[in-house]
């Protein structure tokens, strides 16, 4: 009796930490695999219950309750369900070799989304949705991977001309002409980080983490997401390896022209905290400001920079899976989950935006043809170097900050 209880306790403890792998316990020195007991879950009943509760013509729960539990409105969820089912065969309902119907796409996607929203284990979804733990974990992986594959071009993109016009208009009203957003980093704890990697992934918080670098705008839309750097790096190290400013240096970003305090600028900027370098693409606050002008500027900059902090907070509030320690083992899986949460976050913002315009999301793609190697300093290469120098120009950084201080003080004086 005691040995049976101890075996069950070991299996329960293992399921908490190894929830994305099948359990292979060794008890009393034995290395044999534990037999898996068949459970007749009645999947049809689980699908019917889920459908009647939320998707029938007269559902049990209201649209408000649907949004609170699914994190989005019903039409958006159905759009995602249809797209995922059309692009990933795993979510298409099929019969097994015995002729019995398997889980529906509604069950698998609901289980995956609920696990992402609530941060619970796969076993938590079994009683209501009638889905096994290993299947629920596989559904999360497939769901996040599919979202990234089919929605990245639309919801993990750089701003286009219409977006930049809108962002600049709002920034002008807030007293920051030329501002395109705020940049910052957040850490996601990695509970099941391999022991050999813990030193590399552990930083100032003494626990293994993975870093997300993001740029967010006033409406909390996340325009840029770079995820995967070990937690031992700081924001500057992440920035040096990020593709974000490489795109600026390569000339892929659209030009931004504006005038502040009589000086003309042709490159947008992002609000950042004090650790970021003194580049022309960053506007930072003033530490220990002296004088009314500097104090007012520091106050307004810090208030506007909270856009990215609010975006992180809302992202973690909607998807608790990235708020708590991750129990996954592979960085690739964690990356897909993080990107999928950001994609869903942006889709929700678009769906619930009061006055949204139908923007054209089609962009020219970079050809995959490999260029011929050359050791000559071509015109394109010299322009690349020049843009790098422009981005890292500290003199323009100081000039821009001084102009913004004067601009903010002028607006304050006119109020």
Automatic annotation (TrEMBL):
Checking InterPro entries in the record gives:
Harbinger_derived_prot
Q: Report which superkingdom the organism of origin falls in.
A: Eukaryota
Q: What is this protein called?
A: Nuclease HARBI1
């Amino acid at each position: 009796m005691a040995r049976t209880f101890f075996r069950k306790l070991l299996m329960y403890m293992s399921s908490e930490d190894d929830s994305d792998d099948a359990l292979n316990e060794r008890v009393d020195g034995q290395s044999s695999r534990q037999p898996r007991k068949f459970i007749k879950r009645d999947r049809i009943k689980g699908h019917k219950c889920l459908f009647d509760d939320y998707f029938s013509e007269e559902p049990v729960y209201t649209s408000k309750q649907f949004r609170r539990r699914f994190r989005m409105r019903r039409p958006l969820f159905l759009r995602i369900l249809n797209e995922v089912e059309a692009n990933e065969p795993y979510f298409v309902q099929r019969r097994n070799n015995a002729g019995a119907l398997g889980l529906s796409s509604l069950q698998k996607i609901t289980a995956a989304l609920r696990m992402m929203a609530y941060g619970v284990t796969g076993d938590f979804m079994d009683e209501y949705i009638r889905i096994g733990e290993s299947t629920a974990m596989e559904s999360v992986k497939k769901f996040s991977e599919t979202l990234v594959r089919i929605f990245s071009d639309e919801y993990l993109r750089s701003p286009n001309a219409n977006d930049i016009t809108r962002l600049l208009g709002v920034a002008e009203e807030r007293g920051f002409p030329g501002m395109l957003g705020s940049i910052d980093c957040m850490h996601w704890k990695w509970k099941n980080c391999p022991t050999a990697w813990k030193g590399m992934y552990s930083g100032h918080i003494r626990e293994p983490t993975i870093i997300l670098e993001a740029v967010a705008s006033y409406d909390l839309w996340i325009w840029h997401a770079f995820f995967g750097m070990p937690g031992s790096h700081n924001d500057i190290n992440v920035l040096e390896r990020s593709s974000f400013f490489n795109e600026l240096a390569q000339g892929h970003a659209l030009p931004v022209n504006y005038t502040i305090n009589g000086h003309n600028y042709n490159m947008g900027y992002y609000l950042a905290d004090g650790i970021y370098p003194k580049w022309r693409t960053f506007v930072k606050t003033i530490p220990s400001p002296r004088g009314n002008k500097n104090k007012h500027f520091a106050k307004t900059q810090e208030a506007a920079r909270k856009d990215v902090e609010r975006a992180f907070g809302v992202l973690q509030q909607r998807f608790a899976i990235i708020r708590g320690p991750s129990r996954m083992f592979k960085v690739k899986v964690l990356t897909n989950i993080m990107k999928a949460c950001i994609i869903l976050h942006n889709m929700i913002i678009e769906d619930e935006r009061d006055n949204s315009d139908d923007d054209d999301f089609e962009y020219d793609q970079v050809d995959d043809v490999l260029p011929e190697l050359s050791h000559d300093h071509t015109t394109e290469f010299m322009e690349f170097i020049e843009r790098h120098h422009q981005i890292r120009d500290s003199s323009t950084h100081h000039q821009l900050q001084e102009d913004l201080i004067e601009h903010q003080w002028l607006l304050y004086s006119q109020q």
